[in-house]
Every structure is written in C-alpha cells, then in structure tokens.
Write a structure and sequence with these properties.
Blueprint: H1 4-20, E1 24-30, E2 35-40, H2 47-65, H3 68-71, H4 94-102
Antiparallel strand pairs: 1-2
Helix pairs in contact: 1-2
Length: about 110
C-alpha cells in the first residue's frame, strides 16, 4: 500500500503535526505495509494524543489525495490499523536508533 508517492503525503502531514505539537520528527522509514517514525516529544505531550493525531490527519490527507494505490487497500473504511507500537529509546544512543529506522526500505530522513 505504501509507495513513494503515498509516503510523501504522509511525511508532509507528520512534519506539520510535529511542529504543531512542538515535537521533532527525527527519522522516518517505511515498508510496503507499515511505517517507522522516530519522534522526540516533550513530556507535556500525551503519546496517545500525538499518535492519534499523526494517524488521523495523515489518513485524511491521503484520502483527499485520492491516490489509486490506496483506495482498495484500506482496513475496512480505515486507512490505519487501530493498533500501534511505541518504544522508548531514552537510554539507547540516538544514532543506533536512527540507523535502524534508516535501514527500513524506503527510509527517508526528514532532518537536513
């Protein structure tokens, strides 16, 4: 379902949302059927609210783009699965985590 074109739409929405939430989208990566985001966020941000926004806004933008590779690959009427996995990496060196995310096929850094 994810293609370079779909991922660009997603990435634009995530970058804007991270700015709105005062977060930093440090790294992204994707496979055919899932994405990885490395996000630095302040303690005042509720993780569930951030993820709900990242998923909700990006789904609306992808639907609005009317990309043919998406229209027949939905979770029922939903773009995203209702589940997610969030892992804290506070003790791990950031470079190791970034390398892992970069190594996912289609990985694209959002940092300069």
């Amino acid at each position: 379902m994810f293609t370079e074109r779909v991922f660009r739409v997603l990435l634009e929405s995530w970058e804007q949302l991270c700015t709105d939430f005062e977060c930093e989208l440090r790294e992204t990566g994707w496979e055919r059927d899932y994405v990885h985001l490395l996000v630095g966020y302040p303690p005042k941000v509720a993780l569930s609210k951030l993820i709900n926004s990242l998923k909700g806004v990006s789904a609306r933008r992808v639907r609005a783009a009317k990309l043919p590779e998406v229209s027949d690959k939905l979770w029922g009427e939903h773009f995203w699965s209702p589940s997610y996995c969030a892992v804290s990496c506070g003790g791990a060196p950031l470079e190791i985590v970034k390398r892992y995310v970069e190594q996912q096929r289609g990985g694209a850094s959002s940092s300069p």
